[in-house]
Amino acid sequence: MIPDLTIGDLTIDCANAERARDFYADLMGWEKTIAFGALAVKTDNDMTILFWEPDIPYVPPVWPEEPGKQQKQMHLDFTVDDVPSAVEKAIRFGATKAAAQYGGETCVTMIDTEGHPFCFCARPKEKSEFDLYYEKQGYGIIPTVSINIDCKKSEVLREFYAGLTPWDQGFHWTALIDENRMVVHFMGCDGDFDYIPPVWPEEPGKQQKQMHFNFQVDDLQSAIEKAVRLGATKAAEQYGGDHFVTLFDTEGHPFCLCRRGNA
Questions:
Q1: What is the pLDDT of residues 13-42, one digit of tens each?
Q2: How far apart are CA 146 and CA 98, in angstroms?
Q3: In the structure, what pLDDT confidence band is assigned to residue 263 with cuts at 50, 70 and 90?
């Protein structure tokens, strides 16, 4: 692993960065800020989320997935005490409730102002084994927000990030816990749809990345070498000079390794 690796930010692509930031700041009460020259929010577990308008027109995902359409690639989940109230609040701020629902009353899928699906999941009334794990590790309560990364096989992508990061591996076989105590799930498509990796740099008519991580490290070259040994590939196009390098994980999701203090 890269022991000093931390999340610099999670970047969410959108058609309108100001609208997207306002939506999540209003919905979650997150602090609006500027980070690395981009519109951003600071979450309640101290993670930075950037909102970015791609160089080519942003294409929102279609959910549930349809052949030949843009896939969600990654999405956020929010654990809430009152799902119906959260749904009503999200709609007031511009979200829509997805036409298809599979979670009953305990998990509702919404579509944000930019077309990204996200879910409201009911907080269990009784402590779950996952709550107890957090208590045992001294993490406190499970943060409201978690992130889900689409892939063909959960265990394959999880193994890559378990080798790359110092994240906690004891939580669940499909997940890791990052340094912000956020749960990162690896969502295997399991025959529900054919996962198609994004193309970067973006090309018209091809899958867009939708979201990506920017990681910060102290020794950039050593981190790149480690990532490649674990199965990452270095992107042919690079725009970060000596400051950051773009790579693809084993499922084709781009991510950046950034010299600490740079974006």
A1: 999 999 999 999 999 999 999 998 999 999
A2: 19
A3: low
Distance between CA atoms of residues 45 and 56, nearest Å: 32
Average pLDDT, the chain: 96
Q: Which domain covers residue 192, as residue numbers?
A: 6-259
Q: Write down the residue that tokens 């927000």 correspond to.
A: 145
Closest CA to 121 of 139, 137, 104: 104
CA distance 97 to 135: 33
85: three-class secondary structure by DSSP? helix
Asked if 158 contacts 176 with a C-beta cutoff of 8 angstroms, the reply is yes
Cα torsion angle, 57, 245, 183, 164, sign:
positive
Q: Judging by beta carbons within 10 Å of its beta carbon (0-12, 13-18, 19+), is residue 140 exposed, middle or buried? A: exposed
Token pair in block for residue 256: 């950046």
CATH number of residue 213's parent domain:
3.10.180.10
In a domain, 122, yes or no: yes
Of 179, 122, 254, the closest CA to residue 2 belongs to: 179
Say yes or no to pLDDT of 153 above 90: yes
- Predicted confidence (pLDDT) per residue in 156-189, tens digit: 999 999 999 999 999 999 999 999 999 999 999 9
In what helix (H) or strand (E) does residue 247 lie, and over which residues does it extend? strand 244-248
Cα dihedral 190, 191, 197, 202, rounded to 10, equals -130
Beta bridge partners of 74: 149
In a domain? residue 1: no
Number of domains in the chain: 1
